[in-house]
Amino acid sequence: TGHVTLDPGYVNTGSCTSAITYIDGDAGILRYRGYPIGELAEKSNFLEVSYLLIYGSLPTQTQYEEFAGRVTRHTLLDEDLKNFFDGFPRDAHPMPVLSSAVSALSTFYQDSLDPFDPAQVEISTVRLLAKLPTIAAYAFKKTVGQPFLYPDNSLGYIENFLQMTFGLPAEPYEVDPIVAEALDLLFVLHADHEQNCSTSTVRLVGSSQANLFASISAGILALFGPLHGGANAAVLDMLEGIKADGGDVDHFVQRVKNKEKGVRLMGFGHRVYKNYDPRAAIIKKTADNILERLGQSDELLELAMKLEDVALHDDYFVERKLYPNVDFYTGLIYRAMGFPTKMFTVLFAIGRLPGWIAQWREMNNDPATKIGRPRQVYIGEPERPFVPIAQR
Ligand code: CMC
């Protein structure tokens, strides 16, 4: 058309202004609302960071308690929504189940779907933050054939999720504080990452004035893919594969460099970071720590460290500025905590939820927002006459 500039994959196309997350990919810097990720990881917690992302500033003690109290009050799922899980096969992947259940929330809460009514947006925000861990735990319980547990609102956000996931009605479940602390940290590290694939999806769907539940449901499915959130599970599959092949890291790296179809070093590379992903650096330390503190020596962790070391010194990866990303070590931690591989991306989704919500709200409050509607360059047939079927 002469007016359209193509940018497949939006490598260099900005679609909005945002005051939420700052990334300097060359320097390996990530900040939420101005606060460096390393400081938040060390000093804050997931609910506080959620408040920060959504409302723009750190809460006072009173604001924090009020917010945490509201989120806690909404953890239950409607009993009819509980039945919804019975409609899926036992071996259903929990990501589409998660997305479907979130989409179904808009049928249960028809009183709060107006994207321009601040009170309705607020209650939807709280409901989502409160219910996603419950939904995730039920999606997991379904796959192992165990009964769903009700939330225990005397517990903290993370502890409650762990209780619903790993608890059994017949046995008291003690949440391991080491596990809870590490999971909280991982959620903080995942909480936002500006205009990535799933967040852009949430914004694009929301730009049509679709409600918050519908927009987040779409974001969850965007996160599912192995090049995005699904990479954390793909890394573990890759490590298992290398182990099954006798642990030959060099051989695997050679296959990656030969660009064998479908063979990538999963958990490496990033569209924006051309330096060590600052989240990966924190997670690597955590992986080391938690495996040691849980008393697990992990052959796969050793393989991962060897793989990283080989890649960081290999010209192929150096020239392309490929470094470990957030997903390289997370799977090993989740596995040590007892989560099956299928749940890894679900954990990413719980962590990313406050970011999606914050971005959706920012978009709706921005007077510059228009419906997202990319253009194309048509390369098909020119006009031609219709030929009746008998003459083709
Ligand atoms: N292994 C081997 N080669 C790679 C990798 C990798 N992981 N990542 C990029 N490359 C190569 C790629 O083949 C290309 O080489 P060449 O120029 O010779 O064709 C070059 O590096 C540039 O790659 P690209 O695919 O154009 O880069 P992109 O910005 O489109 O893709 C990415 C970014 C994250 C999708 C990609 O690096 C990748 O597929 N990584 C593995 C999957 C992964 O770990 N995803 C998680 C991303 S981080 C957080 C998240 O979203 O979950």
UniProtKB/TrEMBL annotation:
GO molecular function: citrate synthase activity
Pathway, per record: Carbohydrate metabolism; tricarboxylic acid cycle; isocitrate from oxaloacetate: step 1/2
Keywords, sorted A to Z: Acyltransferase, Transferase, Tricarboxylic acid cycle
Listed Pfam families: Citrate_synt (PF00285)
Signal peptide: none
Keyword Acyltransferase attached: yes
PROSITE patterns reported in the protein's UniProt record: CITRATE_SYNTHASE
Catalytic activity: oxaloacetate + acetyl-CoA + H2O = citrate + CoA + H(+)
Keyword check for Nuclease: no
Alphabetical list of PANTHER family matching this protein: CITRATE SYNTHASE
UniProt similarity note: Belongs to the citrate synthase family.
Record-linked NCBIfam families: cit_synth_I, PRK05614.1
Protein name from the UniProt record: Citrate synthase
Lineage: Bacteria, Bacillati, Actinomycetota, Actinomycetes, Propionibacteriales
